[in-house]
Write a structure and sequence with these properties.
- By secondary structure, the protein is an all-alpha fold.
- It folds into two domains: 68 residues, no CATH class; 36 residues.
- It is built from five helices and no strands.
- Helix 2 packs parallel to helix 4.
- The longest helix is centred in the last third of the chain and has 31 residues.
- The protein starts with a helix and ends with a helix.
């Protein structure tokens, strides 16, 4: 980036924390359409946000290259589902018991 372009940009971001949250949402694909539009129009004017975006994108890209993507084994999925079903049953029973106690006392 040329020094002339850097001179025209903001060098301090008043909303840096919020901008970093938005950058994360943009990079992980969870940003809304409105957030994406706002991001595209505003980021070009703020040097800290551009640098934050470039850093987070570089980290994400580097991690994606290093991580071997594997599917979760079917047995693990089945175990998780059965534990969730059991937890749901226990939760329903607890809620029912609390309602009964509330009714009687």
């Amino acid at each position: 980036m040329s020094e002339a372009i850097k001179g025209e940009m903001k060098h301090h971001c008043e909303n840096h924390e919020r901008c970093m949250e938005m950058i994360t949402a943009v990079l992980d694909g969870s940003a809304s359409k409105e957030d994406m539009e706002h991001f595209r129009t505003e980021m070009d004017h703020c040097l800290p946000c551009i640098e934050g975006y470039e850093l987070q994108k570089s980290i994400k890209d580097a991690l994606n290259q290093k991580i071997e993507k594997k599917c979760c084994p079917d047995k693990t999925i089945a175990d998780i589902k059965s534990k969730l079903q059991l937890a749901t049953i226990v939760l329903v029973l607890l809620v029912s018991e609390i309602k009964l106690i509330d009714i009687y006392f």
